[in-house]
Amino acid sequence: MNGFKEITPFSLTENPFKLIGKDWLLVTAEHNQQCNMMTASWGGVGILWNKPVAFTFIRPQRYTFGMLENSECCSLCVLDDSYRNVLTFCGTKSGRDVDKIRETALTLEHIDGVPYFAEAKIVMIVRKLYAQNMNADGVINTAVLKNYRPDGSDWHKMYINEIVKVLVKE
Ligand SMILES: Cc1cc2nc3c(=O)[nH]c(=O)nc-3n(C[C@H](O)[C@H](O)[C@H](O)COP(=O)(O)O)c2cc1C
Predict the structure, then answer these.
(1) d(C-alpha 77, C-alpha 37), whole Å
(2) Distances in whole angstroms, Cα of residue 11 to Cα of each of 52, 87, 163
(3) Of 14, 39, 58, 143, whose CB has the highest number of CB atoms within 10 Å?
(4) Which is it for strands 51-58 and 114-117: parallel, antiparallel or unpaired?
(5) Per-10-residue mean pLDDT, the chain, length 170
(6) Cβ count within 10 A of residue 11
(7) Ligand 1 pocket: which of 38, 59, 99 to mutate (most atoms within 8 A of CB)
(8) Which residues have any ligand 1 atom within 6 Å of their CB?
(9) How much is the CA Rg of the chain, to the nearest whole Å?
(10) Do the Cβ atoms of 61 and 141 come closer than 8 Å?
(11) What are the chain's domains?
């Protein structure tokens, strides 16, 4: 974790609405020595079961989805605005078709075996606690349905992840 210092989630002063919704997250996971990352801007942070948690919502079509399913931990990286093109690339290209790490030239590092990128300004190392497939049964306001195909094949899976480490750039 060269260049980073560890802080507790309670010391994070950045606005989570901005971090997730505007800066966007790079969700990075690894399985069988294959690493992939995708951009995510839907999610949240908070407290559940007395633990600091991060919520992510991932559609099953994502290549990253398989890696998340097969790994206990992943990282959520926040990069500054100079990486906007990288984030757009990682949010529009699939790791099935391109090697995103090579194409973006981001520097892959690991902490406790969990992949993250050295260019990040904030890294959250998270461990899955709970996951659930979302579906139309839970819908209270039908306005939500416009986000999903009529055949229901693209409903997100919600992951509730314990935040085990927060690293910030020194
Ligand atoms: C700004 C932005 C935010 C996104 N947020 C999410 C998200 O929260 N959940 C999701 O499943 N896909 C999200 N995506 C789409 C994935 O990042 C995109 O489909 C990506 O190409 C998947 O890559 P992969 O197939 O290598 O996993 C987002 C894309 C962009 C550009």
Answers:
(1) 10
(2) 12, 26, 13
(3) 58
(4) unpaired
(5) 93 97 98 97 98 98 98 98 98 98 98 98 98 97 97 97 97
(6) 9
(7) 38
(8) 24, 36, 38-42, 57-59, 62-64, 88, 91-96
(9) 16
(10) no
(11) 4-169 (2.30.110.10)
